[in-house]
Write a structure and sequence with these properties.
By secondary structure, this protein is of the alpha/beta class. It has two domains: 117 residues, NAD(P)-binding Rossmann-like Domain (Rossmann fold, 3-Layer(aba) Sandwich); 170 residues, Dihydrodipicolinate Reductase, domain 2, CATH 3.30.360. It is built from nine helices and 19 strands. Strand 14 and strand 15 form a beta hairpin. Helix 4 runs parallel beside helix 5. The two termini are 38 Å apart.
Length: 366
């Protein structure tokens, strides 16, 4: 067995902790060797928390640790500079989302590092068990040719990446994309945030952004996101994937199975740990139509879906950084996701349709 891939993390916030926990659960595959922070007063605390050396300089960390790859988990405004520094040292990068703040920032970043092939982005949504299963069904033609995706669960570039993935545009489509959007305000309680229950059921004005996205060639997306929908359980997560011969609505598949035969079937999750199942609490697999479609690649670690997706991304990135696997989510796709999301916000602000034109990274996606 080969030695574990080594990695470092730039940044020490909430998202960084996911990577640290998963590395601790996968010691035979991944080893965290260093952290990089901005403030000297934070260095000692992070070193103690993560049990690794910490540095105030990316260059110093790379020179002393030589990691297989580096995760940048920092505010989007400073991310491009850190990515460029790492690429200059020929160090593979896994960037948190988005890779830059705005369109000009992405253009500059692509000009600096786009041709290097050293940057992947930690876009994990299509690796969540439910979405990975839906994607597998789409790719095997369960609903024919996919033409439309409606997402109401996550925000901005994440939702766009889901749309592009189901529509077959990842690595293959970069625009132009025409977007229309509007914002709507309505009263709503907000009882749950990232840190848990707020114990506040006060109704407050809450904004919803709805976008209509025309990817061209008859492919479209509908975006529907309400403030704090990640955590506020008063808004259900919904996804509808429509194709030429049926559609997938959440866990229900409706399709034309043959002449005069429209059938309805469900995606089923096989969960360990219920009743007298004593194999531990875990998701084992998801199936459809009597066949296992997705198996938990991290079975036995008892992870929530988000952790499964991030762990899958980490594994894939480690393999890519060692030239042992394909690129999991290249910078070009991440730039395109964010480009379309920014156009949607522009359309909502101006009230006019906005076209996300083909950008420099489009050549990598054609």
């Amino acid at each position: 067995m080969s030695s574990p891939a080594t990695f470092a993390i730039v940044g020490s916030g909430w998202r960084s902790e996911f990577f640290v926990r998963l590395a601790q659960m996968l010691p035979e595959e991944l080893t965290l060797v260093a952290g990089v922070v901005r403030r000297p007063e934070a260095a000692e605390e992070v070193a103690k928390r993560w049990s690794v050396p910490t540095y105030l300089s990316v260059d110093e960390m790379v020179a002393k640790q030589h990691p297989t790859f580096v995760i940048t988990s920092v505010p989007r405004g400073v991310n491009p500079e850190i990515i460029s520094t790492l690429v200059a040292s020929r160090t593979p990068v896994l960037s948190e989302t988005p890779p830059a703040s705005d369109l000009d920032g992405m253009r500059r970043l692509w000009a600096d590092v786009g041709s290097s092939g050293l940057v992947q982005v930690a876009e994990q949504y299509l690796l969540l068990p439910g979405h990975a299963t839906r994607l597998a069904l789409v790719r095997q033609g369960a609903i024919g040719q996919c033409t439309s995706v409606q997402v109401s669960s996550t925000h901005d570039y994440h939702a766009v990446s889901m749309m592009r993935g189901f529509l077959g545009l990842l690595g293959a489509g970069a625009g132009p994309v025409r977007v229309q959007a509007g914002r709507f305000e309505a009263p709503m309680a907000d009882p749950l945030h990232r840190d848990g229950w707020t114990d506040d059921d006060t109704v407050k004005p809450t904004e919803t952004l709805i976008g209509l996205i025309d990817f061209g060639d008859g492919r479209s997306g509908v975006y529907d996101f309400t403030d704090n929908q990640w955590h506020n359980q008063l808004r259900a997560r919904r996804i509808v994937i429509r194709g030429s011969h049926g559609e997938i609505q959440d866990d229900t598949v409706l399709r034309l199975a043959g002449p005069r035969a429209i059938v309805r079937s469900s995606i089923q999750r096989y969960q360990l740990g219920y009743d007298l199942n004593l194999d531990g609490y875990d998701t084992e697999h998801l199936s459809w139509n009597g066949e296992v479609v997705w198996r938990n690649p991290l079975l036995g670690l008892r992870l929530m879906d988000e952790e499964i997706a991030i762990g899958t991304m980490l594994r894939a990135n480690a393999a890519w950084a060692r030239d042992e696997g394909p690129a999991p989510y290249p910078l070009a796709d991440a730039c395109q996701d964010h480009h379309v999301a920014l156009a949607m916000h522009d359309a909502a602000r101006t009230g006019a349709a906005v076209t996300a034109e083909v950008e420099p990274w489009g050549g990598a996606l054609s």
